[in-house]
Specification:
With about 375 residues, the chain is α/β, with parallel strands linked by helices. It contains twelve helices and 14 strands. The protein has two domains: about 60 residues, Roll (Urease, subunit C, domain 1), CATH 2.30.40.10; about 300 residues, TIM Barrel, CATH 3.20.20.140. A hairpin with a 2-residue loop joins β13 and β14. The longest helix is centred in the first third of the chain and has 17 residues. The protein is globular. The structure holds zinc ion. Zinc ion binds next to loops.
């Protein structure tokens, strides 16, 4: 048995009373939370800083780790997407797997215990099988033409089966509202709901996306014509059609929300919806950040992701949390932000019974962090 204490202990949602102690079994399971007065103090390992649960990275693309420093910054999303499409296949499988392996190790070293990871391929399966990190793989699908949705789902099920055969938890993720027909979004969310699993979708990531969805001229016209794709299907759709397609009784993660205004935030929110922020990627691609103030009322529904190394220089969730802390201008409290990378992220992935909080009977991992100059600093992985 180990007894851990610190100046402050954050349990995933709140700070515990001073002098609290976490009792850990030999299997690193939390067996009790008690007051130091109930113990022989010499048994207690005391840490300077804040003890908190292992972190949840709610949005990543591990399979793009080999694209670090390969994609030009600040181009806007359509040009970014074109560069990723051009670059991602120019590498052999070993290079892609090695990069994924190294970043998986880095995430673990930096206190991440669970990841919501977008997958277009099976290349990360071997890394995930060996990793101490819990991965929920989101099999990402897209398709502009609703007539193709059944064919696309068949391909998605094939990829999903490869993950399932290796006992890797997974569900489906429609890519984004500008790339995926409402029919396909509805079908994928239904498949996930039948399996009682989370869904993820990129959402309001660029101004071009808003223009495109409002049927105004945008760089997506250039992207789709360069790919030889017709976008006629989108002409008759309304915002209401899109919002109604996202209704589900299970967690739905909208990723980025960079250009969501208050009206859009209020229109989409419900108890199962989680807004995932990936601020480094927003700065990398669009040179901007979400209007965090518009999300204040929904801080219990916000989580944080690193996105991929195609649009970030590290998969470090504490760095992302610090960017939000520094740029939300006191919108979010430190508790709000720590909750995003602990309990909220776990809820978004449907794993809150095991991760994201210091609850008796769980093995959430334990990190030591420190607050310094309005930054969150990761000190060490304690457990
Ligand atoms: Zn993404």
């Amino acid at each position: 048995m180990r007894y851990l204490s610190a100046k402050h202990i954050f349990n995933g949602t709140d700070f515990l009373p001073e002098n609290s102690v976490i009792a850990l079994s030999n299997k690193n399971e939390i067996s009790d939370i008690l007051s130091i007065s109930a113990l022989d103090e010499t048994l207690v390992e005391y840490f300077e800083g804040i003890l908190c649960p292992g972190f949840i990275n709610a949005h990543c693309h591990l399979e793009l780790s080999h694209l670090k420093n390969k994609i030009t910054q600040h181009t806007g999303l359509p040009k970014f997407a074109m560069q990723v499409v051009k670059n991602r296949t120019h590498f052999n499988k070993e290079v892609i797997e090695q990069a994924a392996f190294e970043e998986d190790c880095n995430m673990y070293k930096n206190g991440i215990v669970a990841v919501g990871d977008i997958c277009n391929t099976a290349t990360t399966i071997s890394v995930k099988q060996q990793s101490p990190i819990y991965y929920h793989s989101f099999i990402e699908l897209m398709g502009l033409d609703p007539n193709n949705s059944d064919k696309i789902i068949t391909q998605g099920i094939e990829l999903s089966t490869q993950f399932s055969n290796d006992k890797l938890p997974n569900s489906f993720a429609p890519h984004a509202p500008y790339s995926t027909s409402i029919k396909l979004i509805r079908q994928l969310i239904k498949l996930n709901a039948n399996a009682e699993l989370s869904t993820s979708i990129h959402h309001h990531e660029s101004l071009e996306e808003i223009l495109f969805l409002n049927k105004q001229k945008s760089d997506f016209d250039i992207l789709y014509s360069s790919l030889g794709l017709t976008i006629d299907y989108f002409k008759g759709l309304s915002q209401t059609d899109y919002l109604s397609s996202l209704k589900t009784d299970f967690p739905l993660i909208t990723v980025h929300n960079t250009f969501s205004n208050k009206e859009a935030v209020d229109a989409i929110i419900n108890e199962n919806l989680f807004f995932c922020f990936c601020p480094s990627a927003n700065l990398y691609i669009e040179s901007t950040l979400p209007q965090f103030n518009d999300f204040l009322n929904y801080h219990n529904n916000c989580c944080i992701g690193t996105d991929s190394l195609a649009s970030n220089d590290s998969l470090n969730i504490v760095k992302e949390a610090t960017i939000i802390l520094k740029n939300s201008f006191n919108t979010f409290s430190i508790e709000n932000i720590l909750k995003m990378i602990c309990n909220n992220g776990a809820k978004a992935l449907g794993i809150d019974s095991k991760y994201g909080s210091l609850s008796i009977g769980t093995q959430p991992g334990i990190n030591l962090i420190e607050l310094k100059n309005n930054s969150i600093e990761f000190k060490q992985k304690v457990v």
